[in-house]
Amino acid sequence: MKKRQSAIPLYDESRETLQSRPVRIRDPEQPSLPFDPIPDRVEPCLALLRPAPPEGPEWLFENKWDGYRLAIHIEPKRVRIITRGGHDWTQRFPTIAEAAKKLGVGTAILDGEAVVLNKQGHADFGALQRSLGGRGGKRASTEAVFFAFDLLYFDGHDLTKTELDVRRHLLSDFLDGATGAVQLSEEAHGDGAELLAKACTMGLEGIIAKQRDRPHRSGRSGDWIKIKCIQSESFMIVGYEQSAAARSGIGSLLLAARRGDAWVSVGSVGTGFKTADAEYLRKTLDKLRTKTPAVPLTGKNYVFALPTLIAEIEFRGWTDDGNLRHASYKGLREVQDNAAVFDMKTLTVGK
């Protein structure tokens, strides 16, 4: 088994880590509250994308993890690992499940992200996909690490109506110092703009800002905000361009985003996928062939496919006519991950 990598923390100029530690001690005299039944599932709070971090003491900051959003349900006789789409993936992450059993808590729901770390201590989405056997694969990942950033239920009590600061404090009580397959996603202490600059310099994906005094609210409420160093979004694959000289006959993938209920072309991507990726994509897209393109495209070597496969694409911006600039393929999103395809309504091109 590979030695588990550690995540690289954010640093200030003195090389001191910009991480906070618990500053409050739990009150052993806290009143005995009635027990709440543990829910089967809690819809996650999702982050809105913003170009710059917010300011003010009401915001806390963390690293933005590039992996799969999961919830760990710790129950008296079992541990369940649930995807963002509500699917049970306990068997896909056995090392995380085993580590959760050993945390020493009776009941809890931990919200966080499963990632695979590279040699630099950065989350590598492609490596996570490969560890699971690719899209549709059934392999179990023993390399993945779960970084917990929220606590939704604990010791028989529903915490979703409790402010984030308190939930984080309780979470840090039993995860502080953990270095195994379940770890604490530590709060990064400092100015948001400064932390974003550090994250970008270190090659991280970005940061997340969260309002300290808010309860857990499912969906994109604006309580959580994501600010990225490099843009990365999910797009629908609507076909490919054939090439006799390229890997497995695929020269590039044709991509589309949403515009309300319709699809709109955002260009293509021809880099980032390995030979094995291209072979799988060609085989799968050929099974999805259609004569009617999902978007109005014409090309002599185009093969159109039903809009089924969702790809995670890294890119450097947008052209004035609404196409991706310097796009690179990162991997396919799982159906169970419930990934949302990028909606052009959120973008103002050319401004």
TrEMBL record:
Question: GO molecular function terms here?
Answer: ATP binding; DNA ligase (ATP) activity
> Does the record bear Ligase in its keywords?
yes
**Highest taxon of the source?**
Bacteria
Query: EC no.?
Result: 6.5.1.1
Task: List, in alphabetical order, the GO biological process terms annotated in this UniProt record.
Answer: DNA recombination; DNA repair
InterPro entries (alphabetical) = ATP-dep_DNA_ligase, DNA_ligase_ATP-dep_C, DNA_ligase_ATP-dep_cent, LigD_ligase_dom, NA-bd_OB-fold
**Would I find Cytoplasm among this entry's keywords?**
no
Pfam families (UniProt xref): DNA_ligase_A_C, DNA_ligase_A_M
Query: Residue limits of the ATP-dependent DNA ligase family profile domain?
Result: 137-228
Keywords on record: Ligase
NCBIfam families with a match to the protein in the record: NHEJ_ligase_lig (TIGR02779)
What's the protein here called? DNA ligase (ATP)
Source organism of the structure: Shinella kummerowiae
Lineage at the top is: Bacteria, Pseudomonadati, Pseudomonadota, Alphaproteobacteria, Hyphomicrobiales
